[in-house]
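Pinned message: reference record for Response regulator transcription factor
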Amino acid sequence: MLKLNRLLLTSGGLDLINSMSDLFYSIQVQIVDSDSLLGQAFDDTTWIFIDWLLPAMAGIQLVRLLRASGPGRNARISMVLPGQDEQMQMRALAAGADDYIIGPLDPKRLVERMKTYRVALVPPDDPVTTIGEMSVDTNAYLVRFRGRPLPLKVNEFRLLAHFARHPDRVFTRSNLIGVLGKSQEVNDERTVDVWMSRLRATLRAHDVPYVPRTVRSCGYILDTIGMQR
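Predicted structure (tokens):
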């Protein structure tokens, strides 16, 4: 199962750090600036909350720089937006953010997002699902096709694992919001479309035939009828 070891925030105070540390005692919580973020290496056990407005640069620019660098590609990044702005939301996702949350951050809001994230990571009783030549292991957070591991980001993995566990069933975009570990506060269904597009692009780039398709006006489905399971 995927672990979370570091929580990095570009704004906040001691009360925010203490609240998160008390609830998630095994996670290192820090307030950091843009320079220190660009000088560190991250893996997929790090979650970074980046404010839209920062003293040294725009938050969206920081996201782009992190995604363009090797050390920042694997971290989970949430953009902290100053309000419900449609253009900001789409620009944050296009820059490489995994999702977004409406700020300013406070202990209650951040704890709720963390709880949603942890619930979404609970694996099923049987961790390995097999569809044809593809296996999805929720304990190892690993997908293999013909024995080769696929380079999926966390949200891509979540979606594919969900479809693999529930094949031949249509899921609406609203259904899939929870799969991405998003709270009810942010329910922009276009976020689902962005991640579905990324997932399908990754699968096709590696010649994987098990690609969820769009069901017009409904949502998405992974067809497996006729495949060996």
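Pinned by admin. Summary line: The longest strand covers residues 46-51.
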